[in-house]
Amino acid sequence: MFPADELNVETEFAVDAQGVRKRFGAIEALRGLDLAIRAGEIYGLLGPNGSGKTTFIRCVAGLLRPEGGMLTVLGGAPSAAVSAGRVGYMTQAAALYGDLSVDENLRFFAALQGVAHADERIVEALRTVDLLDRQRSVVNTLSSGMRTRVSLAATLLHRPSLLLLDEPTVGVDPLLRQEFWAYFRKLAASGTTLLVSSHVMDEASRCDRLGLIRAGAVLAEGTANELVARAGTPDLESAFLALAEAR
Amino acid sequence: MNGHRVRAVAKRIVLGFRRDRRSLGLLFVAPVVVLSLVGAVWGVATERVPTVVVATDRFNFPAPIVDRFVASSAIHGRRGTFEEGLSQLRDGKVDAVVWLEGTTLHIQIEGADPLESGSIGGAIQKALADTLAGASVLLGGGPAVQVDQLYGGPDYSILDYLAPVLVAFFAFFFIFLLSAVSFLRERTTGTLERLMATPLRRAELVLGYLAGFSFFALLQAIVILLFTVFVLKVHYRGTLATIFIVEAVLVIGAVSLGLLVSAAARNELQAVQFVPIVLLPQVFLSGLLIPVDQLPDYLRPLSAVLPLTYANEALRSVMIKGYELADPLVLRDIGILVVFGLVMAVGAVTSIRREVA
Lengths: 247, 357
Hints:
The complex is a heterodimer.
Chain A: E1 13-24, E2 27-38, E3 42-46, H1 53-60, E4 68-73, H2 78-83, E5 87-90, H3 102-112, H4 118-128, H5 144-156, E6 162-166, H6 174-189, E7 193-198, E8 209-214, E9 217-222, H7 224-231, H8 236-246
Parallel strand pairs in A: 3-7, 3-8, 5-6, 6-7
Antiparallel strand pairs in A: 1-2, 1-4, 8-9
Helix pairs in contact in A: 3-5, 4-5, 7-8
Chain B: H1 3-19, H2 21-42, E1 51-55, H3 63-70, E2 76-80, H4 82-90, E3 96-101, E4 104-109, H5 114-132, H6 136-139, E5 144-149, H7 158-188, H8 191-196, H9 202-231, H10 240-264, H11 268-285, H12 300-304, H13 307-319, H14 328-351
Parallel strand pairs in B: 1-2, 1-3, 4-5
Antiparallel strand pairs in B: 3-4
């Protein structure tokens, strides 16, 4: 059911999920979820709140163990990919140490990921999220949008092969959101695979491919244009509703 | 003042508790557990019969009276020489040695624990009263009684006797609380989830926490020790370094226990409610208030698994009796405290499940 601990860097799919199941008590969060994310693409996991997006991302991050199905991350078990420092996970909440400075937070996460030349990487990551001038600020003094940016910076430090971004643009202003997506595109171009969850449909068009998820299962997979064409609707939001009803 | 709004706030609190079953359980279970302990410890007569050596080489009462004294039900009487008795008292094999000097009955006790001393002295005086009942006319009244202590004495205040156990208790209490709540914040702020999605292993996380908190725990131990000795001017006989080593192993165990408890709690409220569950049994069963020897038999096994029991014994031995680090009793207590810390640390590691939700 579960893949071996070794990673296969030449794998075609960065994430391969077949019939993944996960339940919390009486609630079945994932009901045989199937999807495959190609290496180097931006994959959007799109669905309403409670549809299983975060549960799936947490399975990929090795935080939850699926009860059924097969889940391969970078050609091996999720925990092996995480242990090898190949995965970056940006949680929905900023999840930083509020009483430490931005620099101290980033230095800590860099140490955990075994990042060499941490000074350069921290400056590079902070420049990416446009917070270089707040390097010495204590995190508790930052706005929520700034904390989200620090959180993204912390995820980028070790240049992961697979980046898991759980609703990364929540609380981020439109201008910076544009910059985030430009940076995501740059990362993908350099070979990083990105799994981005969102319930905002207008972000979907920025992804290479989408998985529409509802009630713990994927309704449809494809590019935004393919999904719209398949549903015969004018836009993605209507396509999602049409595909959900068709199920 | 709007009654509806007050009612809405009150209802919100009741509904919140209804869904927080762990807090609700602790709210009712914690006091019942603690009261059960209080009832068991103080509600049951726990008069312990002390073992007393009657130094026959220094006890020139008529033989029938000596026989009656040794056979008294208030004590476990034994015959022996004065030197044998003192040796057994030092080794902790007997509770007292009695002998006569002129018309004065001397009771030699260990004296490290005033509560125990009172109980032993009372039992011997009762045995003496039973023995002399009816015989006092013959003897022209009972002898005067003088109690001598191996350790402590008239220049010792109650604080001198309590300081060793209070030092242990305060060091344990504060660092346990701090580590329990701090580690819980990793979970509630989401950083634990982030940490678990890095190559960091659970054992590394716990060891890191242990190292970080132990730094402050040891500083705190030094402050408590120096304040007790130099500001409160508590008498102590052993070396400061030995006292510090006992304190150090105790507080490192307290950090581990704090981490374990925080893994069981989901929020700060629950963590705080674990405090009485963890600490109050140690107050009642570790020799802090009642000598361990005087506990009911069925509570002794519980006392034997509490770290403060060993810390109290070791610190009393060092501070009041002047035992050194190399003393087998002190080494045994330190060893048990180290094992306790290790077991709690392993428990903390296994309790941080990969599934942190």
